[in-house]
Amino acid sequence: MNYAADLDAIREAAGRIARYAHRTPVMTCQTIDRLAGRSLFFKCEHLQKVGAFKFRGACNAIFKLADDVARKGVVTHSSGNHGQALALAARLRGIAAHVIMPNNAPPVKKRAVLDYGARVIECEPVLVAREAAAERVLAETGATLIPPYNHPDIIAGQGTAMLELFEQVADLDAVIAPVGGGGLISGTALAARELNPKLRVFAGEPQGADDAYRSKQAGKLIPQTGPKTIADGLLTSLGELTWPVVRDLVEEVVTVEEAAIVQAMRLAWERAKLLIEPSAAVALAAALSDRFKGLAGIDKVGIILSGGNTNLDKLPW
Fold first, then answer.
1. Where are the alpha helices (DSSP H) in 22-106?
2. At the topology level of CATH, where does 55-145 sit?
């Protein structure tokens, strides 16, 4: 089956963003390894520009635009990390960015979008309101819509994190990434299936926003409705481009409770000194879950820590 991206597209994206994006480090922690019963290798995307993996996809999408198209600017709707990423990538290319954000987005993320020079348009925190606002801005400006995850160039860009991890750590048995809209897990799975077909790909998801888990169980895409989780970056539904990848190439979606997310986040801060946000902690919580610990034949696990944009005024503990 043809998916939204392949290894060639991911490698092209890596070349396109190389001069702009960080090659993030991989870290380890013996204490967390003992708790997991395995060796964990943390791909530190919280140290990426804008504090999240999202810069990879946004940068790839923006720098792939033709000059005459880019000149009119770009539009997106985002709870924060993608908005920041698009704002910075647009600034680097010298074009305008318009970011629709839900009015309950963390203040730290809204401030960052503004600091990168983008225009922020607030809306109600539901998908239909975000999409309606985006359509209005597109009509006003003639700009190009670059969605947070459901876009081939976004998916290819996110896959570059797995490309780097593959080069940094040999012989991984499995990789875990958090899943919300599915851009990161799709890019990860698409890179992995060609780099090492034996690599097992897992997604971590909050129980309070478990549309990917329910979709996998049902064998069909089930939209997210009324999500409730501290992992504010994982509130969106899978898209028509990301769902087939999750359906076919992700072995299992491991869901975790809110308390486990907070515990994993605190563990990463205290013991590994990895200052991640709740959405990133979901992947670690999945690795520490009884469900994942019970899987045989897995000794070395890559964990993609998706971001570090935490509201320091409202830490969950």
1. 30-36, 54-64, 67-70, 81-93
2. Rossmann fold (3.40.50)
